[in-house]
Amino acid sequence: MKYDRRSATSTQAIAQKVLATLQEHKNAGTVKERLFDIVNIWATVSFESFKIALAMLEDDGLIVKTNDALSIYKLTDKGIAEAGTLVPEAEIRLRPKLVIILGVNHELQGAEKRDRNVDDPFYAMLLKQLIGEEGLDFFFEEATGLGPTIAENLSLVTWGQNHYLDVDPPRDERERFGIPTNSNEPFMIGSPPEAAFANWLFHEMHAKREELWVQRVREQEFKKALMICGHSHTFSVAFRLIAASFEVKVATYAK
Q1: Distance CA 34, CA 74 (A)
Q2: Which of 179, 187, 208, 230 is deepest in the core (most CB within 10 A)?
């Protein structure tokens, strides 16, 4: 994919830094050292900016991309000569991590400490299907300390320890993170005996919760993960993760 250089002014410095790194190692350093220098530059900028910078160098014949891998070319006095491709661990870092957001009704999660749960065998089938079809290796979940949940138990059976994280602190621990305890306020529609209830949702409080979730996702090692959360968080969490340079897919499921 070619990029208009005039529209990529903000990435010129990145491209120049990549080029300078290649030139610095023109006659010294191993292929692996050169490649990791390039990856380390990527780690300090957004993935999109780095891709544009690479495309600019690709136009100059210095970097060639194939199936998300990079071939780095060494500069010589006579032109350029192929130096090699990204080693596997560097290639993994170059690709943005995938997070699939699954918005559900909380009652489906099967949290043991939740008062009301709905037994839906298709929910567990869905999680297993996503593991197989998407190649998942981690579960994140808005469980609010009420687990273990169906997802947590499934992660233990599938991957063993340390492949699950409840990203949402329990209500009695929220103040430690600057998050108010109450997230909503019910109000009555009509009057008894013919009455129902709706809820005011405090968006500022939920924003702080979601920011904490994204922080915890960024701190975790994984390649492809599932984030299970309530329906009302589905797209807002997706947008936050995209802004944090994750690749994101979104799905919902309701009984």
Answers
A1: 9
A2: 179
* Residues pairing with 252 in the sheet: 103
Tens digit of each residue's pLDDT (9 = 90 or more) over 129-146:
999 999 999 999 999 999
Q: Which of 103, 113, 171 is nearest to 141 (CA)?
A: 103
Largest Cα–Cα separation, the chain: 89
**Are 80 and 123 in the same domain?**
no
Statement to judge: residues 136 and 241 lie in one domain: yes
Residue 131: CB atoms within 10 A of its CB come to: 18
| Domain, as residue range, for 207 | 98-253
pTM, full prediction:
0.65
Q: How far apart are CA 91 and CA 104, in angstroms?
A: 33
Residue-wise pLDDT for 2-13, tens only, equals: 333 334 445 556
- The β-bridge relationship of strands 164-166 and 247-253 is unpaired
